[in-house]
Amino acid sequence: MKSPSALLHAGEDTSGPPRQPVRGPMVERIAGWSARHRKTALFGWLLLVVGAVMIGNMLGTKNLNSYDPGQAGRAERVLARPGVVQPASETVLIQARSGTRTVASDPEIRQAIRQVTAALAAMPKVAAGIESPPAAS
User: Fold this and answer.
1) pLDDT recorded at residue 51
2) Where are the domains of the chain?
3) Gap between the Cα atoms of 8 and 67, Å rounded
4) How far apart are CA 89 and CA 125, in angstroms?
5) Which of 26, 62, 110, 133 is the most buried (most CB within 10 A)?
6) Quick check: 115 and 122 in contact, CB under 8 A?
7) Which own/partner pairs from 90-97 qualify as long-range (CB within 8 Å, at least 24 positions apart)?
8) Which of 108, 86, 83 is nearest to 95 (CA)?
9) 133 Cβ contact list (under 8 Å, min separation 6)
């Protein structure tokens, strides 16, 4: 009777050292392990994603300012320098519904300018320096 190894490998010499088992490609081995250990593989991937997000947040991003070209860009760069403080400002646009009337000729627009100026001046944190158009006075 023949040995079991002789039956498996007919025609091969079994007297020499034992042959190394043939291993499949790396991807197949990883896929097989993942199929056998589903929970471990899933939690491993989740930990990898959480770790990558946490490390990314700790490293942060570098914010680079972008400036317009020409003189406007130069002015933006000067204003962005440390130590340059710009006072807070606000602009209010008041215009006629038709768009054909001017501030000087329309009493409704002039009245609206006076009302907005008075309302802003009455606010507690508004600095003195509210300006209205010259024609509205």
Assistant:
1) 96
2) 24-59, 91-125
3) 76
4) 12
5) 110
6) no
7) 92/116, 92/120
8) 108
9) 103, 113
- Cα of 90 vs its chain's centroid, Å: 28
Residue 96 · residue 109 · CB < 8 Å: yes
The pLDDT value given to residue 49: 97
Q: How many residues does the chain have?
A: 137
Which amino acid belongs to residue 54? M
Which residue's structure tokens are 């002039």? 110
3-class DSSP assignment, residue 119? helix
**Hey, what are 130's tokens?**
């509210």
Cα 24 from Cα 110, distance rounded (Å): 87
CA distances from 105 to 96, 134, 135 (A): 11, 13, 9
CB-based contact 112:94 (threshold 8 Å)? yes
Q: How far apart are CA 53 and CA 117, in angstroms?
A: 50
